């Protein structure tokens, strides 16, 4: 049943791979041998996702549209701070996204960049600074409301988790890298705060991070995050490389990564959610993923080859929202995919 799931499972991707190998090798035996071996390896080393009922508690808390505060809610307070978490809760967020980085002495803290230059009054790479040094920095130094937060500090991961749980906020742990360090730190956090198993999700752009997390603790809800063309282009669409051959090589790698993300890696990691940058959610994207239909204003759609959630996170959590649409997408392995669109009042 794993290959022949209701909406196709791995049948489509592996059929495509088999046909491609037949064209390249012109040998049915070799093509079937390679495809079959790859399928067996995938079955052997893949993880089952957590039960869908538990995943729903995170993806659709309180049975309503999710409002996730990006970087803790960086519009109304300095990003990735305890003040931002409190403000997000006050503004009605159901959850917060927290970026995890590490100091030179291995302390997990909240920081989006690998340097402290953009958000604080300090300079330098985070990996070159001790926790004692970064604790002296002001994370509100470059924020538009800096005068309202004179005593704010860069929080540890533990401090941030405790604050989120105090306000009953769902936590999206965004892991930038450091797979081994991050999984070790998160394992300790989950042991200390077992309620996180039903109130948080670990997500990353890097499949190795998610795979390592599932190896460490298969009860943790996880998600793969994806921005198309991320290897070859920056966030504003500019090419990353000046030389034609190098740029072209990374474009090809982006195509392979995109195909793998949507067809293979989510099975391998056993994720409960697939998060894609909101700028790439479009009618064409939904059509390409074979959306089957919609029901009135509530819009219940089906997505055959994805597993999890497309969630829009915002730096600013509005106090009022109208024209809200909640999309629930059943998936091959019965894991819901939820996506919210709101016409926000200024």
UniProtKB/TrEMBL annotation:
Belongs to the glycerophosphoryl diester phosphodiesterase family. It holds the Pfam family GDPD. This is Glycerophosphodiester phosphodiesterase 1. The lineage of its organism: Eukaryota, Metazoa, Chordata, Craniata, Vertebrata. CDD domains: GDPD_GDE1. Gene3D superfamilies: Phosphatidylinositol (PI) phosphodiesterase (3.20.20.190). Residues 65-346 form the GP-PDE domain. InterPro entries: GP_PDE_dom (IPR030395), PLC-like_Pdiesterase_TIM-brl (IPR017946). One of its GO terms (molecular function) is phosphoric diester hydrolase activity. It comes from Canis lupus familiaris (Dog). The gene is GDE1. GO terms for biological process: lipid metabolic process. Signal peptide: none annotated.
């Amino acid at each position: 049943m794993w290959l022949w799931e209701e909406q196709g499972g791995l049948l489509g991707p592996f059929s495509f791979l088999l046909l491609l190998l037949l064209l390249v090798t012109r040998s049915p035996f070799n093509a079937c041998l390679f495809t079959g071996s790859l399928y067996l390896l995938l079955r052997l080393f893949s993880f089952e996702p957590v039960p869908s009922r538990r995943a729903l508690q995170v993806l659709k808390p309180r049975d309503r549209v999710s409002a996730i505060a990006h970087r803790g809610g960086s519009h109304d307070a300095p990003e990735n701070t305890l003040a931002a978490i409190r403000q997000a809760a006050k503004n009605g967020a159901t959850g917060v996204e927290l970026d995890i980085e590490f100091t030179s002495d291995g302390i997990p803290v909240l920081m989006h960049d690998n340097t402290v230059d953009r958000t604080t009054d300090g300079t330098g790479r985070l990996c070159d600074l001790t926790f004692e040094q970064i604790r002296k920095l002001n994370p509100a130094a470059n924020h538009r409301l800096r005068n309202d937060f004179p005593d704010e500090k860069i929080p540890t991961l533990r401090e941030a988790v405790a604050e989120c749980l105090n306000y009953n906020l769902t936590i999206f742990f965004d892991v930038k890298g450091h797979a081994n360090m991050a999984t070790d730190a998160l394992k300790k956090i989950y042991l200390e705060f077992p309620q996180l198993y039903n109130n948080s999700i670990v997500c990353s752009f890097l499949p190795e991070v998610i795979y390592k997390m599932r190896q460490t603790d298969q009860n943790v809800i996880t998600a793969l995050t994806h921005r198309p063309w991320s290897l070859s282009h920056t966030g504003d669409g500019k090419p990353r490389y000046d030389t034609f051959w190098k740029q072209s090589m990374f474009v090809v790698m982006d195509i392979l990564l995109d195909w793998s993300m949507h067809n293979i890696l989510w099975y391998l990691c056993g994720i409960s959610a697939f998060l894609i940058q909101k700028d790439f959610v479009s009618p064409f994207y939904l059509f390409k993923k074979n959306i089957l239909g919609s029901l009135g204003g509530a819009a219940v759609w089906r997505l055959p080859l994805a597993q999890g959630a497309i969630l829009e996170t915002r730096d600013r959590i509005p106090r009022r929202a109208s024209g809200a649409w909640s999309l629930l997408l059943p998936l091959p392995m019965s894991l819901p995919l939820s996506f919210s669109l709101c016409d926000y009042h200024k």
